[in-house]
Amino acid sequence: MGLFNNLFYKPLSAQLTITSSNGFHLRPVAQFSSLAKSFSCQVTATFDGKTVDTKSVNTLLSLSLEKGDTFTLITQGKKAEEALKELHLLFETLMHDDKEIQKIEKTDYHYEGSVIEGEIISKGIAMAPTFTYRAEEKQHKSEMGFKDALSKSIKELETLYSDNKEDENAGIYLAQKELLSSLGVNCQTLAELETQVEEESKKILGTQFDSKRSDYLDILQRVKKHLGLEIKVIFPDTPFILLCTDLLPSEIEHLHQTKVAGVILKETSINSHTAILLRAAGICSLIADTERIIENETAILDTHAGVLVQSPTADDLQKATERLKKDDAQKSLNASKRFKPASTQKGKQINVFANVADIHSAKIAKEEGAEGIGLLRSEFLFKSVKPSLEEQQKAYKEIFDTFDDITVRTLDVGGDKALPYIQIPQESNPFLGIRGVRLFHTHPELLEEQLYAMFLAAGNKPIKIMFPMVSSVEEFIQTKSFAQKVAQKYQLDISNLLFGIMIEVPSVLFLLESFNDVVDFYSIGTNDLTQYLFAIERTHPSLKTNELSPAVFSAIESILQKTTKPVSICGELAANKAAIAKLLHLGIETLSVSPKSIAQTKETIRYA
Ligand code: PEP
Ligand code: MG
């Protein structure tokens, strides 16, 4: 739709605030642009007096939005309202899911050789000669024209993204695809693309997004490869510690197939895509000044301590060998013990369940040693279009089949999370507004269909159905009777199902004696409970709650003293190493954590 036509429509806008400490960086921006492009209306973002088109990653990135910045999202034209809602929803999800990458803590070291300190990318020990990366470039003849090479590269990245969608780092391919599409769109020759890449990557030099410059080079390299450029690196065929200024994200996969024992990079950051992929590949790596390192000499790379030891003594090598053995033993122990039950020092067995969001995470949870699903967030099905009854039933059934013990939560949207196809009036305090179970009043048909699908998927299985954001006993009784009426309407026997609540609204703490008479189980949602106890929005850009505060533990203690029905914890606190012993001491017997935290949570329990 052209600009002229759009003028017939009123512009709609929303204020969006960056709450992630990583800022609005390449990966979330790529997902945002990708969705914006699916609408024909105009979608712009205004910040600090500058307005840009959000359909191009490049221009959206040029706003350099950092934590705490608020920009105005404006949609104008056909389906502008839908676009605004969907983009708003996606933005909230992206901010919520964008985990801050913490600096990795260093342990002490006692080496006699000469030590170079650095910043840890990924932990481990390597003992091998150092090897400096040297690439040889060869230009072969190519029949392919620039435009074909460009579209082939975009297609390649798109395939890499869709083939690896299940992988948590797949967003890197989407990010590169969107970047290449937006930079290449007006280029007719390779030289033009090179200039464009150079200019744009210069703009992020020295900003919070500096570490993403390797992605700019990576996409250029991909196009050049189709134009006949061959980059040859001959790696040693015995173990080596690689020294390099920086690596391109696409080089990590290749590296993984060599005898690499460790990697030291000079110019990257722990947030770069190269660093993310090194961690995912489990390659012990460090950021340090590679120019101070002697080539081809045996060294120790100890990334627990964050050091490279040159000219190590026999004693140093002995220490590193012992640490390496310990690491290997711990890894295989964790892996082998992840399917074993977790018991405390006093012999009390604790259930370790998983919080999952779809069949993919349920399968990972199984693989990681979960013993059940403590929280299935059903929101995953309710994205841009309303799922049909059949789609819902199929998706729930597939997940219900993965474990014997399953707790599924009814739709927990509203408040900050809008759904494009349901109308929730604009509220000035959305976190205190229509959220979670309150949707049973505003959108009964939607919830009726969801419950019906869950009942059909459950069959005879004793599935636990959990209502979110319950704040009074009457609310629970009404909601459960709503569920029973749905079963009656469709002539289903649901006597095998259990009904419980999330404890995340503080009023529940004072009503537990009455709740005990009506609910079958409880699960404490510490994420929301903490936000409401402290009156600090969980996504607030600058205010932060302390989930380890004595107030949170007192609340949990009081819950455990008053409840007579099973209680689990499914908020983030359940996986916090600093909290687990305390929670178990208070009497918690079931922890529900993200799939990747299961092995570690079990191991922490064993020492509690
Ligand atoms: C919680 O509030 O602790 C919880 C587990 O639910 P969510 O994070 O989905 O709101
Ligand atoms: Mg919650």
**Assembly type of the shown chains?**
single chain
CATH topology of the largest domain: TIM Barrel
- Per CATH, the class of the largest domain reads Alpha Beta
Mean pLDDT, to the nearest integer, reads: 91
Number of DSSP strand runs:
23
Gross morphology is: globular
For the CA atoms, what is the radius of gyration?
Answer: 27 Å
**Architecture per CATH nomenclature, i.e. the level-2 architecture of the largest domain:** Alpha-Beta Barrel
- Helical residue percent? 25-40%
The CATH homology group name of the largest domain: Phosphoenolpyruvate-binding domains
Each distinct ligand: phosphoenolpyruvate, magnesium ion
Distance, first to last CA? 62 Å
Return the structural class.
alpha/beta
Task: Supply the number of structural domains.
Answer: 4
Query: Roughly what fraction of the amino acids lie in strands?
Result: 15-25%
